[in-house]
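I have been asked to look over a protein record a colleague put together. Thanks in advance; the entry in question is below.
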Amino acid sequence: MDCKALAGALVLGLAGCATGPAEPPDPAAAQTACGYPAFVDQRPYYSGALVRHAGKLYRAKYDHPGYIPNVSTYFWTEVTPFVAHRRYYEGDVVAYQGQVYLAAHDNPAYLPNVSTYFWTLLNCPR
Protein backbone atom coordinates (compact mmCIF):
# COMPACT_ATOMS: atom_id res chain seq x y z
CA MET A 1 0.00 0.00 0.00
CA ASP A 2 1.49 3.39 -0.91
CA CYS A 3 1.60 6.41 1.43
CA LYS A 4 -1.46 8.08 -0.07
CA ALA A 5 -3.59 4.94 0.14
CA LEU A 6 -2.38 4.23 3.67
CA ALA A 7 -3.13 7.79 4.76
CA GLY A 8 -6.65 7.44 3.38
CA ALA A 9 -7.12 4.12 5.19
CA LEU A 10 -5.94 5.65 8.47
CA VAL A 11 -8.27 8.62 8.09
CA LEU A 12 -11.19 6.23 7.67
CA GLY A 13 -9.97 3.97 10.47
CA LEU A 14 -9.64 1.09 8.03
CA ALA A 15 -5.96 0.26 8.47
CA GLY A 16 -5.47 -2.82 6.33
CA CYS A 17 -9.22 -2.82 5.50
CA ALA A 18 -9.79 -5.17 8.45
CA THR A 19 -13.29 -5.86 9.65
CA GLY A 20 -14.39 -5.16 13.20
CA PRO A 21 -13.44 -2.24 15.43
CA ALA A 22 -10.86 0.09 13.94
CA GLU A 23 -7.54 0.24 15.73
CA PRO A 24 -5.79 3.57 16.30
CA PRO A 25 -3.27 4.45 13.58
CA ASP A 26 0.19 3.01 14.15
CA PRO A 27 2.74 5.68 13.11
CA ALA A 28 5.54 3.13 12.80
CA ALA A 29 3.49 0.98 10.44
CA ALA A 30 2.43 4.00 8.41
CA GLN A 31 6.00 5.16 7.99
CA THR A 32 7.29 1.67 7.18
CA ALA A 33 4.98 1.83 4.18
CA CYS A 34 6.49 5.21 3.32
CA GLY A 35 9.92 3.64 3.23
CA TYR A 36 11.75 5.11 6.20
CA PRO A 37 14.94 3.08 6.57
CA ALA A 38 15.68 0.73 9.44
CA PHE A 39 18.21 1.96 11.99
CA VAL A 40 21.78 0.74 11.38
CA ASP A 41 23.97 0.52 14.50
CA GLN A 42 27.11 2.72 14.48
CA ARG A 43 26.15 4.47 11.24
CA PRO A 44 26.34 8.29 11.41
CA TYR A 45 22.97 10.07 11.51
CA TYR A 46 22.31 13.76 11.08
CA SER A 47 19.78 15.97 12.78
CA GLY A 48 16.35 15.38 11.25
CA ALA A 49 16.99 11.81 10.07
CA LEU A 50 13.99 9.49 10.41
CA VAL A 51 14.50 5.76 11.05
CA ARG A 52 12.55 2.69 12.12
CA HIS A 53 13.77 0.74 15.15
CA ALA A 54 12.09 -1.88 17.37
CA GLY A 55 8.72 -1.31 15.68
CA LYS A 56 8.73 2.47 16.18
CA LEU A 57 9.70 5.55 14.20
CA TYR A 58 12.37 7.93 15.54
CA ARG A 59 13.75 11.33 14.50
CA ALA A 60 17.35 12.37 15.23
CA LYS A 61 17.50 15.53 17.34
CA TYR A 62 21.25 16.01 16.85
CA ASP A 63 24.07 14.69 14.65
CA HIS A 64 25.64 11.56 16.18
CA PRO A 65 27.72 8.48 15.25
CA GLY A 66 24.84 5.96 15.39
CA TYR A 67 23.53 5.72 18.92
CA ILE A 68 20.58 3.33 19.42
CA PRO A 69 17.24 5.23 19.30
CA ASN A 70 15.43 3.60 22.23
CA VAL A 71 18.58 3.79 24.41
CA SER A 72 20.06 7.19 23.53
CA THR A 73 17.00 9.35 24.04
CA TYR A 74 19.10 12.51 24.17
CA PHE A 75 19.88 12.05 20.47
CA TRP A 76 16.53 10.60 19.31
CA THR A 77 12.86 11.43 19.78
CA GLU A 78 10.09 8.90 19.17
CA VAL A 79 7.42 9.88 16.67
CA THR A 80 4.11 9.51 18.51
CA PRO A 81 0.50 9.90 17.34
CA PHE A 82 -0.95 13.43 17.47
CA VAL A 83 -3.22 13.89 20.50
CA ALA A 84 -5.84 16.63 20.64
CA HIS A 85 -5.77 18.94 23.69
CA ARG A 86 -2.09 18.25 24.38
CA ARG A 87 0.46 21.06 24.34
CA TYR A 88 3.21 20.67 21.73
CA TYR A 89 6.57 22.38 21.73
CA GLU A 90 8.91 23.42 18.94
CA GLY A 91 10.78 20.32 17.79
CA ASP A 92 8.09 17.78 18.75
CA VAL A 93 7.38 15.21 16.04
CA VAL A 94 3.97 13.55 15.58
CA ALA A 95 2.17 11.22 13.21
CA TYR A 96 -1.21 12.45 11.99
CA GLN A 97 -3.41 10.94 9.29
CA GLY A 98 -0.56 8.85 7.89
CA GLN A 99 1.93 11.73 7.71
CA VAL A 100 4.76 12.88 9.98
CA TYR A 101 4.86 16.50 11.18
CA LEU A 102 7.43 18.62 13.03
CA ALA A 103 6.24 21.37 15.41
CA ALA A 104 7.76 24.56 14.04
CA HIS A 105 6.44 26.58 17.00
CA ASP A 106 4.91 25.87 20.41
CA ASN A 107 1.16 25.33 20.07
CA PRO A 108 -1.90 24.07 21.97
CA ALA A 109 -2.58 21.11 19.64
CA TYR A 110 -3.49 22.91 16.45
CA LEU A 111 -4.18 20.34 13.72
CA PRO A 112 -0.95 19.60 11.84
CA ASN A 113 -2.56 19.41 8.40
CA VAL A 114 -4.40 22.73 8.88
CA SER A 115 -2.08 24.94 10.93
CA THR A 116 0.91 25.09 8.63
CA TYR A 117 2.49 27.98 10.56
CA PHE A 118 2.81 25.72 13.60
CA TRP A 119 3.59 22.42 11.83
CA THR A 120 5.93 21.35 9.02
CA LEU A 121 5.14 18.24 7.00
CA LEU A 122 8.07 15.81 6.82
CA ASN A 123 7.58 14.09 3.46
CA CYS A 124 8.01 10.40 2.80
CA PRO A 125 11.47 9.67 1.43
CA ARG A 126 11.69 8.88 -2.28
Helices lie at 3-11, 27-34. The longest helix spans residues 3-11. The first strand starts at residue 50 and ends at 53.
